[in-house]
Structures are given as structure tokens and as C-alpha cells.
Write a structure and sequence with these properties.
The protein has a two-stranded antiparallel sheet. The protein is globular. It is mainly α and about 110 residues long. The chain has one domain: Orthogonal Bundle (Arc Repressor Mutant, subunit A), CATH 1.10.10.370. The chain contains five helices and two strands. Belongs to the dsrC/tusE family. One of its GO terms (molecular function) is sulfur carrier activity. Part of a sulfur-relay system. Its main location: cytoplasm.
Length: about 110
């Protein structure tokens, strides 16, 4: 599998995750999101940037949905309630897995969100 981004072919695994994470940029994220049927909003980018920061700056950490909810409760103060549903609005196929794919990170082998 591969993605076409600005005339360049970006290789991906059969599940759509980037083979080389260093090829990721925002244009790549937009193409992957489109392939996933996801519209990227400001909060979608919050999730993507959080996952990338955790992975790149915290020893390859890939937070599960419970940890994501805990984090975003302190960030998304404009929402009346931050729970897993608030994350699924932005990544309906699973905020941890689908958002990681859009973020250009490796596929997590963990099951479920909790």
C-alpha cells in the first residue's frame, strides 16, 4: 500500500501505517485522513500532536484511550465533558489506533481502548 502526496509516493504497510515515520508531515496526515474518511479539525490535530509527542519524546509511548481522555480533560476545557466519545468524534475507528495512523506512527499491537 502507498499514499500519493504532492507527487511523491509514500510507502505504507498493508494496514496503512507508514513504513518510514520520517516521511510524515502535515500533508501526509491530510492524505491519510482522507483515505480514512476523517475530516481533520483543530481537536483532531490536538490528538495527532499529542500522540506524536508521546511517541517521539517519551520513549515510544503509545497512550491508550483512557490515558488520552485523562490528558485531554486538562486541555479541552471548552467542552462540558471529555470522555472517550469526545475522542471518537474525531477518529471514529478508534482514537488511539486511527489517530496514530494519521500521525504517521507505527501500528500499536494493543487491543481495544481500555
Amino acid at each position: 500500500m502507498s499514499y500519493e502526496v504532492n507527487g511523491t509516493t509514500i510507502e505504507a504497510t498493508e494496514n496503512g501505517y507508514l513504513v518510514d515515520q520520517s516521511e510524515w508531515n502535515e500533508d501526509v496526515a491530510k492524505v491519510i485522513a482522507e483515505a480514512e474518511g476523517v475530516t481533520l479539525s483543530e481537536k483532531s490535530w490536538d490528538i495527532i500532536n499529542y500522540l506524536r509527542d508521546e511517541y517521539l519524546n517519551n520513549g515510544g509511548n503509545q497512550p491508550n484511550e483512557r490515558n488520552m481522555v485523562k490528558h485531554f480533560k486538562g486541555v479541552w476545557t471548552d467542552l462540558p465533558k471529555v470522555d472517550a466519545k469526545a475522542l471518537y468524534i474525531h477518529f471514529p475507528k478508534g482514537p488511539a489506533k486511527q489517530a496514530s495512523k494519521v500521525a504517521g506512527l507505527p501500528e500499536t499491537k494493543r487491543k481495544g481502548g481500555y
